[in-house]
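Whiteboard transcription, Tuesday session. T.W. wrote the structure tokens on the left side:
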């Protein structure tokens, strides 16, 4: 609105200072929301317990003191952070058929979500390189995958995740929001926040392309190249038993990578014109809730060392109770 007071022309804009957002979550009948609440509550409890079990086993079992399991334990920490950042608030939303979240709370949730997703991308890339060295250069494995390399890789992954998340959050927190403050999503994600904003989001989209694309494409390239060499090396093994044994060492990781990257690419990379908000919510649910839930299950069921460690731990506890 333009006001002319005779001397100065003032431009007055009707901007609303948003102090909170309303997250809709899954809308539906009370029965449906109660069923989803119980389902996600069970998934959340199993996620926390399963990932804590892996962290405990890796830290206390000598047979698991090697690079691959150190990376798996870091992945479990990332899954716990991601799950606790999303699920408790989602449960609150389901109980109340929607829930408010403060502006600061929304930005905080977005920060930790972005950080853990970026961290998981780089951890999965380092784990694929670990499998490449183990299968393609087994004689040099101990000299390449040293403790210094592992610790450095983990620290760099955490730093990249935090730095990228911080860079993404700062311009997002400075956006102007006018009109509706309703987010038709499960949590504070970048896409619905940009849709609500009445600011010019060109530079944020440019920043996503400049920084976000490498943060996804670099680890993706490492994974693709690593597994290309792994497949070539496995196919060169003359016996089918040898090929099966070699590939079984990285099958768990490959399953986790496939599920995680398929959902990430479906939501953020592939075209979304034909995608509804319901399908976007379901896909987001897969990598924020389901992936942290199935990761420890996959590694436990398909890994002989972890299964053996679980059996030994259970045996120790049962023998103590008998005595």
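and on the right, the sequence the group agreed on:
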């Amino acid at each position: 609105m333009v006001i002319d007071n005779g001397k100065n022309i003032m431009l007055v804009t009707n901007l609303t200072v948003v102090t909170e957002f309303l997250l809709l979550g899954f809308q539906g009948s009370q029965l449906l929301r109660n069923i989803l609440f119980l389902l996600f509550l069970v998934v959340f409890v199993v996620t926390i317990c399963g990932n804590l079990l892996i962290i405990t086993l890796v830290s206390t079992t000598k047979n698991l003191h090697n690079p691959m399991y150190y990376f798996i334990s870091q992945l479990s920490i990332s899954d716990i952070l991601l799950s606790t950042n999303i699920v408790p608030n989602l449960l609150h939303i389901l109980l109340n058929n929607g829930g408010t979240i403060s502006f600061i709370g929304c930005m905080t949730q977005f920060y930790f979500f972005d950080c853990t997703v970026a961290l998981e991308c780089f951890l999965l890339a380092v784990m694929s390189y670990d499998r490449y060295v183990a299968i393609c250069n087994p004689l040099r494995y101990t000299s390449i995958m040293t403790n210094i390399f592992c610790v450095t890789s983990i620290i760099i992954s955490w730093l990249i995740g935090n730095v990228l998340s911080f860079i993404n959050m700062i311009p997002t927190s400075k956006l102007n929001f006018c009109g509706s403050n309703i987010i038709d999503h499960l949590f504070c994600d970048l896409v619905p926040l940009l849709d609500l904003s009445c600011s010019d989001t060109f530079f944020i989209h440019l920043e996503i392309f400049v920084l976000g694309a490498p943060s996804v494409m670099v680890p993706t390239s490492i994974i693709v190249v690593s597994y290309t060499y792994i497949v070539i090396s496995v196919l060169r093994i003359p016996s089918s038993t040898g090929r099966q044994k070699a590939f079984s060492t990285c099958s768990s990781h490959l399953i986790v990578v496939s599920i995680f990257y398929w959902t990430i690419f479906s939501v953020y990379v592939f075209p979304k014109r034909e995608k509804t908000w319901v399908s976007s919510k379901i896909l987001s649910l897969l990598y924020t809730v389901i992936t942290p839930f199935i990761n420890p299950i996959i590694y436990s069921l398909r890994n002989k060392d972890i299964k053996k460690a679980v059996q030994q731990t259970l045996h120790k506890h049962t023998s103590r109770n008998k005595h």
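Someone added at the bottom: Confidence is low (pLDDT under 50) at residues 1-14.
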